[in-house]
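Side project, low priority. Logging it here so it doesn't get lost.
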Amino acid sequence: MSKNAAKAIRENENNAPRFRSADEEFDEQGMPIYHDTLLGTMKSLWRFIGKYKKDTILAWIFVALETAGEILIPYMMQYLVDEISAPSINVGMCFVWGGVMLALACCGVVTGILAGYWAASAAAGLGANLRQEMFYKIQDYSFTNIDKFSTSSIVTRTTLDVSNVQFAFQMIVRSLLRAPMLMVFAMIMAFVTEWRLAFIFLAVIPAVGALLIFIAHFVHPLFVRIFRTYDDLNEDVQENIAGIRAVKAFGRQEEQKKRFGDTSEVIFEKFVKTEKILAFNSPLMQTASYLAILLLCYFGAQLITTWVPGVDGNPQFTAAGVLITEMTTGELSSLLSYIMQILIALMLITMIYTMIVMSRNSAERIIHIIDEVPDIVSPEHPVLEVKDGSVDFDHVRFHFKDNPENDVLKDIDLHFASGETVGIVGSTGSSKTTLLSMIARLYDVTSGSVKVGGVDVRDYDLHALREAVAVVLQKNTLFKGTIAENLRWGNEHATDEELKEACDIAQASGFIEGFPEKYDRMIVQGGTNVSGGQKQRLCIARALLKHPKILILDDSTSAVDTHTDSLIRQGLATKFPGTTKFIIAERVLSVKDCDQILVMDDGKVIAKGTNDELMESCPLYKELYESQLGGGDFDVQGD
C-alpha cells in the first residue's frame, strides 16, 4: 500500500470538490456549506415518507406502550423487595407483585416486537421512496443537470446514502419517542420515590449529555469527508469495470489495484479517526453510571439506617437511641433501576444524535438530487405534434453554465428543408454534437432559437419532440435483454416484420440471423457480447423503428466498414426519403453524397455546400477529402 499516494489523496481532496450540485457551496477547505438546519433537513426527508406515515405512527404507539411498561416495572419492584425483606414474608403479596411485573415484562416484549416491525417497515418504505424519487428525478434531468453530478456520485447517493438514511430513520422511529419518555418519566418516578436522592440525577445528567452531544457534533465534518471519498472509490470501481478490456490489454491491473487500495486506505483512516472520537461515548457513560450509583448507594444507605440519639423523658426512645428507617430497601432498588434507565435514555439520545449527524450529509446529498430543478421542461401549453422535419438555427449561441465566457456555438444561422440529408465534418471539439443536441432539446440555446417544423423547440411537449427526433450516438448503449427487446425501445409495439425491416436497412439482419437464438439472443449489460459494429447497427435499427421526422447519426457508423456504411446510407435514402437526416462523420465518404455538407471549426460553420462546391471553396474540406480518398471514390468490402 502506498502511504504517499494515500497522503496525496488526503491533501488534494479539498482543493476542488469534484462533484457539486446546484445547491452546494464549499468553503476554502472544500467542505460543503449547508444553510439548512438539522431540523430542516429532517423535515425535507419527512415529505418522502408517503403512505408509510401510518407505519411510523403505529411504531411510536407501540414504543410508548413498551416504555410505559419499562418505567412501571422498577416501581412495582420496590414493593416486591420490601415484601421479601420484611420480618414476616407475605408470600401471597410476593406472587401478586411478581405477577404484575411478569405481565408488564410480557407486554413489553410484545409491544417491542410490534414497534420494531412497524419501524422497520417505515424505514424500508422511506428508503424505497427516496430511491424512486431520485431515479424518477434523474430521468427528467437535462444534460446540463446531469453534468453537475458524476455517475459514481449518483450511484453512491442512491445506494450507500439511502442505506444510511434508512438505518438512521429506523433508529429514530424506535428511539426518538422512547428516549425522552424514558428519561422524563424515570426522573418523575425517581422524585416520587425519594426526592432528596433524585437531585443526584440532575447533577450528573446535564454534564454528561453536553459532553456526548459535543462529541457527536465534532465528528460530523469527518463523515462529510468520508462520503465524498466514497464517491471517488465508486468512480474508480466503475471506471475499472467499464474499461476492463483496456486494463487487461495494457497490463495495468497492478496500477488499478494500487489506485483502489490508496483510496480505500484513506477511507479506512478516516473511519478509524472518527470511531476513536466516538469511542469516548462508552467510558463517559460508564463513568457517569458508576458515579451516580455510588452516590445513590452512599446517601441511600444513610436514609435506610439513620441513628437517632435517645432523649430523656421521651418514652419513644431509650437513653442510648434508636435506628430509624427513612427509605426502604425496595425504594433504593427502584432508584438504582431508574438511574440506569435515565442513563440508557441519555445514551439513546446520544446515539440518535450521532446517527443523525452521520446520516445528515447523506440526507443532504439525496436532497440535492431530488431538489435539483430540471432546466429543460415542457411549457405550460405545449405544441403536441411536430409537423415535419424542417430545421432552422436562427443565430444560435450556446455556452455551458459553468463557463459563461466561452461560447461553444457562435452565431449559427442555418436552414434545412424537411427530407434533406445534411453531413457535418470538422475537427474534434468543434461542437458538432453540441449543435445537433439543440434539436431534441438536450441542451437549450443561450441566445437565438432552434425551430423544428417551423416551431421553436422550447414550445413543444418534450415527449412529442423527442418522439419525432431519433439520435444514434457514436458511443451506443444496449441494455440487458434480448435483441428484440432492445430494438423495441424505438417502438414497443413493433411487429416482428417491422423489426426485420429496420434491421435490413441497418444491415443488421445478417449477423442476427447467424445467431442460433436470432432475435431472442440475450444482450448482456452494456452489450459487451456483440462487436462495436454490430452494436452500432442495432442502435440504428432501434432508431429507425421510431419512424422519426429527424434522424441524427452522430458518427454512428464509425465501427463498420465503408461498404456497409454505404449500404446503410442507401437504405436510409430509399426507405426514409421524407426524414431529415443529419450525419456527423469523420469519414468524408460517409457525407460526400449529402444534399448539404457543413464544415465546422471552433463552434462555427466555416463552410457549407455540396461536395463539389466545398472541394472548390474550402481548403480544409479538400485536404480532408484527399487525405482519406486520395482523389478516388471507392467502397471497401468488409469482412
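Brief comment: Residues 91-139 form the longest helix (49 residues).
Revisit when time allows.
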